[in-house]
């Protein structure tokens, strides 16, 4: 038995390599004996959960080889490594969404900043890179190459502080740019160049703006060539922004050949508007420009890759939290089952020859326990870029797309999303063996559980959503809402990051699919689905070890000297509108204006991850940064705000976290921000406070020690910043200890174990409900004859004929027989007036008639008045519907509604309203046979316990009287006292009922119990209760019998209908 983990990207990917230009002789296969390609399906973390920096560890030896080949490249040789991603980087068109980051390389990115120079002062040497992953690619905006060379000159002259020199030069460059661009903005960004990381060199050597030797896309290459020839109209001023300020930055094209070459290039797909914002030029409704074949022919990609050596390396794509958590769990034996990964390889497979792709697939399967889903480039781009990133992800984060063509675009890309999910489902079914556990992850694969369930009805399937789940009001705007929900409900267990997200999901399914929901449980189409909140965590012990490494400690020393006497506010976010970067800068600006004494004492370091495509957002943020930095009079010192458009090496990131005086997160919506968890571990020495947006999943985990803020409240955030910076040492320590305990408690091991346990437990519950056998007379008659005291509880809602009533009369003359349904007491008495000894249970357990006396088991009915107002409002909105008010319940009938199309929405709204507002009071709304019932929950179980306690004495024998008068009993009232609903409440608990009825009585226990009825939310808990009693040995002979459709039920036996039931009862009573 294994755990099959499905995620969009595998934790491993192929890497193509070039040595000498003449040395491309054969394909290099994976060597299982090579320690750098160990078959263990784990990746040792050497980076943050959200970091884009490459992993170190086992990959270091490989990247060292690549760095050697890099030297040859500088001399004009062939690139050492060719990532096929480059060959397809800009083949497809995409729509734009202001809340979405499109991972493409900025066409106009200029020089890059050296992280070492960013940290180091002139008198301190940079630390040696002990782990082999010495640098990261940068997308930081920076001054020109001339400025960079000038910086190096200054570094070697007379002990001049290079950082101060850099800052002066940056400001001069920006001033020069501002004059050229007609702007008054002056943005201070630190850094000048980049030293590529080993991992990044090995995979991104041909990336356009991320290497010392610019290697841009085809049209950009032509543009650069034309610029060298003196082509007019090209602006040469260096910008501190990644995108142009004016539309003059468009690359010219003068020939048809040029148009053909650049048709699939990013440059051709970008339109620079007069506002300066670059927006993609896409085929209508999300279609694609089919020039990929032309581009492939130009590169002769497939022929070239046939003989290029390759190897498998750890991938930097995908869900780092999942990858690292499972890696740690496998290494530390937290889970004892083997793990098989299912996912895509993260490269455009259309450009790889089939035979090479087959070899890669085999290598991943044999050496890395991975099964590859191979999909064409168009499908992947349509599903991932167009649907996931521009439709689904924004909706889940409360950013509903409002593009005029959004509906058509969504319908178009939805087909690709379905196809990709079906490919994943087919691969998982192909991999699955009996007993395996299937664990599917994140919003890219929401349809997969349902698709697998159709082919593997009895499989153990779990699904975990790593992002947020919105309220039903937002999710209902999604066109494919029902399909998504149905797909997710194919799982046995659904995991969410917080209770809020789990509750939103239950309310949404309750409202849109009319599923019956309970605490952490959902019932839909005869199946039970667990709905749990299990926040993902980090491995704190592993992180502590990396914090203590020599490299991290040396970087800490540099940081202390670089910002001596300063308080550091550290922020690290993806560069998109969801992260609240603009709000953060506005709050920081407000803080400095209100507290000018902090202007030269505090530095906010903002690390921006990813290659953001939103030029407008960047300009908005940098305008605020300009204003903040203009508050300082000392331009030679570090400015109040430092913005880095790059991630750091992991030791650098840890060192910055260790030296931070405050960590600030202002994201508008996020599933779980593990960066702040890492910060808590980093801050063991300084115990720095954490300011955290209340809209992150982490806020629910770290609420005890963090300062929770509303990012939209600028004034509040600015005040909290001041408060956090001025905390006493004792208060810092107290808050940090609470944060540390939460991080340790909600770690990655707990997340994995709890998730897999929930999947197994819910599967077992459903499996138990599936074991239903047809009931026969021969099966029941032996135990019936041997038993001495019998109890029959029959849930019957249909009118009975004379023959059935005669059978009931004969059966009740010998045994204890009770009929239960939702009818009122008066109706039941009229129906069964011809059966003298029959017991009755009215309103689904609210009232029990025992030996002619009615017993009230309801705690309170004061809630009815408020519920009636809600139902009346729904009746007005749905002509033809009506409601009936009983003594302890309300029924909402919609079977005669005029507008059938609106029935589900109105009923769903009513159920959601009732369960949300009154659920904590024990009031529950559910739907059965198109009728909505509202009643106190658990009454049927309470009535059953009452009967068992009573019948285990002489109280329910035919013609027997109970011990004690109902008029004087502390738990029951006679029918005479229940003439009006207002006097029917009894405040005594069911525990009091048990103790009273069991007091001083001989134990003559019932040894035969039969409960029967059609499956419903009322009878299923009774089946479960009696089965458990039999299992515990409390009942010798137990029969739980369901009739009607043979759906999943807790009943152990099944019959076709009431006629068959009464046929068996008639034969039993005559034995």
Description of the molecule:
There is one protein chain. This protein is of the alpha/beta class. Among the domains are: 66-299, no CATH class; 546-748, Rossmann fold; 771-859 and 938-979 and 987-1069, 3-Layer(aba) Sandwich (Rossmann fold), CATH 3.40.50.1000; 864-934, Alpha-Beta Plaits, CATH 3.30.70. Helix content is 40%, strand content 15%. The protein has 37 helices and 33 strands. The strands form six sheets. A nine-stranded mixed beta sheet has the order 8-7-1-9-10-11-14-13-12. A hairpin with a 2-residue loop joins strand 12 (516-518) and strand 13 (521-524). Helix 21 (581-594) packs parallel to helix 22. The longest helix is centred in the middle third of the chain and has 26 residues, at 406-431. The chain is elongated and about 100 Å long. It starts with a strand and ends with a helix. One of its GO terms (molecular function) is trehalose-phosphatase activity. Residues 22-50 have a biased composition (Polar residues). One of its GO terms (biological process) is trehalose biosynthetic process.
Structural topology:
Blueprint: E1 3-9, E2 12-17, H1 60-74, E3 81-82, H2 84-87, H3 115-119, H4 145-155, H5 162-181, H6 198-204, H7 218-228, H8 256-262, E4 270-272, E5 278-280, H9 292-299, H10 301-305, E6 310-314, H11 320-331, E7 339-344, H12 354-368, E8 370-372, H13 377-396, H14 406-431, E9 437-441, H15 448-455, E10 460-464, H16 472-475, H17 481-488, E11 493-496, H18 499-512, E12 516-518, E13 521-524, E14 527-533, H19 540-547, H20 550-562, E15 567-574, H21 581-594, E16 602-609, H22 615-629, E17 641-644, H23 650-659, E18 662-665, H24 674-682, E19 690-693, H25 698-701, E20 707-709, H26 714-725, H27 729-745, H28 748-770, E21 773-774, H29 777-786, E22 790-795, H30 802-812, E23 816-820, H31 825-831, E24 839-842, E25 847-850, E26 853-856, H32 864-877, E27 882-885, E28 889-893, H33 903-918, E29 923-928, E30 931-936, H34 939-951, H35 990-997, E31 1008-1013, H36 1019-1031, E32 1037-1043, E33 1053-1055, H37 1058-1069
Parallel strand pairs: 1-7, 1-9, 7-8, 9-10, 10-11, 11-14, 15-16, 15-18, 16-17, 18-19, 19-20, 21-33, 22-23, 22-31, 23-24, 31-32, 32-33
Antiparallel strand pairs: 2-3, 2-6, 4-5, 12-13, 13-14, 24-25, 25-26, 27-28, 28-30, 29-30
